[in-house]
Prior knowledge:
Elements: H1 2-19, E1 27-29, E2 33-35, E3 38-44, E4 53-57, E5 68-69, E6 75-78, E7 82-91, E8 96-108, E9 113-118, E10 127-134, E11 143-147, E12 154-156, E13 159-163, E14 168-177, E15 183-192, E16 201-202, E17 213-214, E18 223-228, E19 234-240, E20 244-245, E21 258-265, E22 273-280
Parallel strand pairs: 2-8, 16-22
Antiparallel strand pairs: 1-3, 3-6, 4-5, 4-7, 7-8, 9-10, 10-13, 11-12, 11-14, 14-15, 17-20, 18-19, 18-21, 21-22
Amino acid sequence: MNKCIIILLLCYLTAANLLFAQIAADFKADTTVICEGYSLHFTDQSISDTITNWLWNFGDTASHELDTSILQNPVHAYNTEGVYTVSLTASNFNYSNKKEKLNYILVRKLPDAIFTFTDTMFLPSYIFCFHGTVLNRDDSSYKYYWSFNQTSYQQGDTIAINTFPAAGNYVVSFMADAGAGCKDTVYNTVQVNDVLEAPNIFSPNNDGINDVFIVKSNGANEFELYVFNRWGATVYLETARRLQWDGRTSAGIKLPCGTYFYYITSPDIKEYKKAGVILLVK
């Protein structure tokens, strides 16, 4: 009799455990940001002793019948940019539980990177200013990387300034990274010249336009600038890697309008010599 009661009690407890078995559905994706056409691997992380069925919904109605899966750990490819809500319903023969993650997957277009560069009169010839952008950028963030030596990348912004070590041709690359390998890299060859150039007129009147006589050099070597008036007297002398003159004497006295003469040389390299005429106007 006692044996029968024990057997019945065990059967009752077993049935009760099966009847009231609880499920806490949960899952994760190997990443939540991808590019169009990339595939994601989803992993079931539901908690329960007995799960027999899985029903996934990837929120991707454009994929039609591929929008759902009954595998425990499925793979799904998203082919259209957008934000997607994903859900998993885990169940057994008498209980089910659904986990939904709103706006869980961000699908982005493969970035189309481009960059331009400039070598202006206001910068030494070895210094270039670079500006990169993404032509098809969206509202989400990007990471940007520059390489000026083709051996390593440095994370930065869309604007970069680089000083090259010498004259020559350099391959510069710009990378825009939208996440999870969703990136584009563009390359350009930059020709760096060793120059020594000077304007022939300037107007130091504080109007913000051509106020300073700027000598464009490579910015690496040291130069000497001599400015003479029409009687041959030295009115200004400067030694620097980047030469400029504001129309004053070395003592800071404003000079009158007129014609002046300059001579540029370098204590570093003898070939660096240049002479010319400057017209100072106001």
